[in-house]
Amino acid sequence: MKTKNIFLSIITLMFFTSTSLFGQFNIRGGLNLAKISSSDKSIELKSNPGIQLGFGYELDLGSNLSFRPSLLYSQKGAKVSENNMTSNSRTNYLELPMDVHIRFGDADDNRLGIYAGPYVGFLLSATTDDANVKDLYKSTEYGFNAGLTYDIYMITVGLNYGAGLSNVADDTDIGDIEIKNQNLSLIGIFNF
């Protein structure tokens, strides 16, 4: 809980102190094609679509370089098949990605960009076939994002890949299974 408060304080401070600097706020939404990887190879895991919604701030660090912290609601999970039974696993996170964004071309034109950076996620809820299983997951996860963007006037469209680096399974409840989130997102960002 202390870690969560520290990260929320840092992100809030960045939003309010950076408004006087050159940058812009944005609203972000998209489709997550989420999946988990598991050390238990007897389980078949498939993608589980979800949504991603939130807001952010893009702080310009130069003509083609920026820092983009965001605060996102992100649905993850997987469709799990084991012993001829299929279940729907859904985890909902409050995520704080902190990406460095590089764009190619003139700022007045449509332009291509790439970005990468770490993220931390705080588990809000977890269900399997509508049953609460939050106690089977760790409350915090971290990972790394990378993606491509294309700017069209005030709108940015992009493709994001998020690789979970931490084991999200609570070992005390599940046993010695390692589970990591993987997420491919189609995103749209409205800059204002």
Provide structural commentary.
- With 192 residues, this protein is mainly beta.
- The protein has one domain: Porin, CATH 2.40.160.
- Helices cover 10% and strands 66% of the residues.
- It has an eight-stranded antiparallel barrel.
- Strand 6 and strand 7 form a beta hairpin.
- The longest helix has 16 residues.
- The radius of gyration is 18 Å and the shape is elongated.
- The chain starts with a helix and ends with a strand.
The H-and-E topology, N to C, reads as HEEEEEEEEEHE
Helicity level: 10-25%
The gross shape turns out to be elongated
The CATH topology assignment is Porin
SSE class: mainly beta
Largest sheet properties:
8 strands, antiparallel, barrel
Q: What is the CATH domain class?
A: Mainly Beta
User: What's the total number of strands?
Assistant: 10
Q: Per CATH, which architecture?
A: Beta Barrel
In whole angstroms, the N-to-C terminal distance is 33 Å
- Which residues form runs of ≥5 with pLDDT under 50? none
When the domains are counted, the total is: 1
Major β-sheet strand ordering: 1-3-4-5-6-8-9-10
Give the amount of beta strand, in percent: over 45%
**Integer average pLDDT:** 86
Based on CA atoms alone, the radius of gyration comes out at: 18 Å
Number of helices: 2
